[in-house]
User: Fold this.
Amino acid sequence: MKQTLIAFCLTLLVGAWAASAAMTNEFYVAAGQTKTVKEIVTANGWSWADDDWLRKTGPGELTASADYKDTKINLLIEEGSYAVPTIVHTRGGRLIIRDGATLRVGGIQNAMGGDWYVSFAGHGTGQGDNLGAISVGGALMNPIFGTGTIWDMASDATIYSYGTMNAVFSGSSAGNGPTLNMNGRTLTLRGKDVNAVFRPRWYWKIINAGPIIVRNGEFARHDTTNDFTPNIPLVSFTEGAVMAAYGTSSLWGKVDAFSFEAGTSLAKGKQGVSGVTLTMKKATGPVTISSDATVTISQEFGVRGTDLVNGKWLTSANVLTFTEGCELSFADLGDLALSAGTVYTAATSVASIAGVPTPTGDAAMLFTVANTGSALTLTVKSGIIDVVRDWNLQTNDVNAAANNTAAVAAHVAEVVDGTILYFPSGDYWFTDTLDLSSVTATNVRLWNPAGTARLRGGVRLGAASNVTVDELVFSGCAGPAIVATNTAGLTVTDCTFDKVEGLYEDGKKYLFAAVNVTDFNVTAGTYVTDGMQYDGQGFFAGGTQAALSEAYADAVVVRVTAKEHWTWWLETTNRLALVPAAYNGKTWRKIGAGSFDSNNTGIRDVGIAAVEILEGAFVVRGNDACLGVAYGPVRVHSGATLTLAEAGTAANSRSIRIAGSGSGAAFPAVRFTGSAIWNKTSNVRWILEDDAAMYASMTGEDGSFLRGAIEMNGHTLTLKGVTDSHFRSGRTFQWNGGGTVIVDQTTLSASSADGSGYVINDGLTPTFIFQNGAKFIPDNTDIFTLVKNCSFATGTQISDKEGETSALFNDFAGNPTIANNITNLTINGTYTLTAAAMTAATPEVPTMAGTLTFGPDATWAVDNLAALERKTYPIFTATGGIEGKPVAAGGMDEGWGVFKRGATLYLGPPQGLIVVIR
Assistant:
């Protein structure tokens, strides 16, 4: 709660500092100037009080004054630097450091005493010793900031040490220290030289952890407590940086992966003990491990081609261990020679090496891995054809087209099962295409791992199987980039398609042509169209395509990668470059983890017949035309989200199939957001293909189920939302297939019926479960046709609205809070009691001001009767009276009964029994 409040306060301060009730004084210092706070305060005749703001502007340097060390100052450093050379702030406050500005502390411990709320961003002014948002000199063993300081990263940021110790994030004991909210950002710890040390001490807490980069200097950690949520995903050491081997430091076990550049090391720190035994989950790069550390790599060891070419590998003075199941990954081919039998060293140990990591991905394609006892070696496999070295293809010469075409024809028979065709960097011309149509081998790969081989003609494939085209650039091809016929399995991944004309045999233009190709799959493509126009993403005749391919038969596929946000029409047209006729009658298939936003432009206008959302988010902004032609179907797969945003009818008179919990807690299968309106959907038939969730991120009624229907198919529908959000049925609604509805935190209500009203067609009544403060508003009695079997958790509510004062249930369970205006609550079926609520230290007893009525066939039951002692329990209080009395449901112990005493209903042993002892 404290951190939430802090984040809120910082947001307000960053965006509207001038709105603060405290005085704000602006301290401007021109370029090349240095001024003190006292100078400017005196010159302007200002007074100074607790919680006043100092706003530093201008590119020059403002120096703190000890005259104000006992004043609780708030600092907003917008430009230039603010220097704290001595102990001048002792009471804490708020500190905001904007991108391009620096707080420079001269290296006196406790110079920024007290507890601060710090928001920092950027990498400093870029001048002198101001190369970080925070820049620290001196030789600090103890913190310069108060140990209770809260840090919040507003962007990627740098902390710079121009001294021999940097104790910014230090605590005062094993249980007391600062909290750093990284917000998933990258923190760079930069040293001025190898003598700079970043060494937090005692307790350190990190939330929303992001990557850490260590540049030069040393990263050490005191042997005490770390509380990180989640683990730090990656710590990278560059520019000769040192990872300190420091006793049994608890820091390194909180890191998921390490990356080391050549010249970095794992060695004894400048402070403290050595002799650490360390297990790294993932480690990449040629780190030098000194005799101060014994290392085990448990999950993944990564090597880089550039390091191997330069003779750089991991070295260890002690035993180096790879645990069983550890993988070896490979990145950056560099200028690595791939002649069969070539041996590269990946790691050595003066003592010994135990275990052998298993190669995966590119490493598995290229190498066999061996442990000689003192070295880990990689041997290039056979079956790798370098088309320049082995086939004499020429690059970067348009006049080489005939030579290259002839060379391929002369050597193509060499492509056998498992062949990798490696294309070194350069441009390749052919008289028509790179013709591999005669190849019938399996597991063939066309590859340039750097994405720097440019094919000036497409690739033609025939009856090969399991072909992969990987990281090639297709540029200016007259025909499609890929033409495949009778190929059994084709994957095109991480390729770039740069102004491919795509003219095919039918006289139309396509990026791909696939005839009787099975399992055709295009992923992670980059498209440069620049005015190109295609008749379709691909020409398909027979065969199949993979579900998440970027080219699919009878569909237009939009792939939006994570963190991307596309808006129709511009981004889509620029990427796909389809002629208008290519959309007509097609399904719009959304893939990728990013968001596609229809931006109020109807895809109905270009004839899209249906929408299928397989991954990520699809946003509709109050315009049903965004979902394709009228009455067209919509399908939301598990892991995807349909967001119905803003005002207007976002979905009207169509069927929407949904499944799953969506792409995140607040992004379920269907998400309602935007203005509070009455008709967010109208006449929509919701069809559950699995358990599914809906989320309301807005407050107020949204008409989620206006004049529609839902087919539960026995599944569970979760309705969740922010506080005061609202799911509302309207006018008429049909419910089929039974199932369970969980109402979580949000409100459920309904208007009175018109027409056919609320109907259950198949007699399968759903069960409604209210939890986490959810509210039920029985606006009318019609809704109880649907909402008649209910369970209410403690803290939920039965409320009232618009004068409706009755609540009518069949089966009823739980302990809701019942509004005073509910004059009558009727239970006609079974009233189920919860033993845990009855036996709690403070028994949970539903209470209402109105009348509780039991129908003539009403029964009672207890979920765990054996848990009750033989005594009397109050189970419901109704100050307006209790009418009728339920009897025991089948299977309940006859030794119990329900009876009334005043305004309270009790469960206990039978009343009125007299036992005479003679």
Remarks:
- Residues 245 and 268 are 5 Å apart (CA to CA).
- The helical segments are 2-16, 37-44, 305-309, 361-366, 401-411, 570-576, 835-838.
- The first strand starts at residue 24 and ends at 28.
